[in-house]
C-alpha cells in the first residue's frame, strides 16, 4: 500500500480533534458519568421513599452534571483554539505497509504503526495518536473515495484501530 495525502492545518480540524479527544478519549468522562449515575440513583431512592422534592433535586443535579461536562469541554476547546498558533504550511502523510510518514518542507518524521498509541476513525477524520494528547489528522473528505476505502480497510486491520460514531 502506498497512499499519499496532502493536508493543511486549519482551525476547524483542530477544533474537531479536541472535541473528539475531550468527549471520547478523556478519562474525565467516567467521573462525570459516574457522578451523574450516582445522583440519579439517589433520585430514584428518594422517589421510592416518598421524598419527591429530594428526588426532583437529585434528578436536576444529575442532568446538570452532564450539562456542566459539555460546557466545560466547549470552554476548554475555545481556550485552546484561542491560544493555538497553527502553522501556515501544508503537510503530507504517506501511508506504507509498515509505517506512516509525516512530511513538511522543513521536517520529516516516520511512525511505525506499532508505535502509534491508537488509530481512531470517525465519519470525517482518522486520528493517528502519536502521543496521549496529539495526533496526525487525516481528513477523509480530502481523499478520493477509492484511496479512502483502501486506507480505511488497511488501518482497520491494525491492532490499535477503533471506529467511533462521532460527527
Report on the biggest sheet: 4 strands, antiparallel
Give the overall silhouette.
elongated
Question: Helical content, roughly?
Answer: 40-55%
> Could you spell the SSE succession in H and E letters?
EHHHEEEEEEHE
Cα distance spanning the termini: 27 Å
> Which spans of ≥5 residues are poorly predicted at pLDDT below 50?
none
The overall average pLDDT, rounded, is 88
Rg for CA atoms:
21 Å
Structural class: alpha+beta
Strand order of the largest sheet: 1-2-3-4
Number of strands: 8
Report strand %.
25-35%
Q: Number of helical segments?
A: 4
In short:
This protein is α+β, with helices and mostly antiparallel strands. It is 48% helix and 25% strand. The protein has a four-stranded antiparallel beta sheet with strand order 1-2-3-4, with no helix packed on it.
Amino acid at each position: 500500500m502506498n497512499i499519499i495525502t496532502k493536508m493543511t492545518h486549519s482551525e476547524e480540524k483542530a477544533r474537531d480533534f479536541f472535541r473528539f479527544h475531550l468527549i471520547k478519549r478523556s478519562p474525565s468522562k467516567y467521573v462525570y458519568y459516574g457522578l451523574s449515575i450516582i445522583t440519579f440513583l439517589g433520585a430514584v431512592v428518594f422517589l421510592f421513599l416518598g421524598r419527591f422534592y429530594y428526588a426532583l433535586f437529585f434528578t436536576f443535579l444529575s442532568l446538570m452534571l452532564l450539562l456542566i461536562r459539555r460546557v466545560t469541554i466547549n470552554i476548554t476547546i475555545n481556550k485552546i483554539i484561542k491560544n493555538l498558533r497553527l502553522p501556515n504550511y501544508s503537510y503530507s502523510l504517506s501511508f506504507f505497509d509498515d509505517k506512516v510518514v509525516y512530511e513538511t518542507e522543513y521536517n520529516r518524521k516516520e511512525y511505525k504503526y506499532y508505535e502509534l498509541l491508537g488509530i481512531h476513525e470517525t465519519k470525517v477524520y482518522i486520528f493517528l495518536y502519536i502521543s496521549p494528547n496529539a495526533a496526525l489528522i487525516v481528513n477523509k473528505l480530502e481523499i478520493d473515495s477509492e484511496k479512502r476505502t483502501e486506507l480505511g480497510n488497511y488501518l482497520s486491520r491494525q491492532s490499535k484501530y477503533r471506529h467511533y460514531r462521532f460527527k
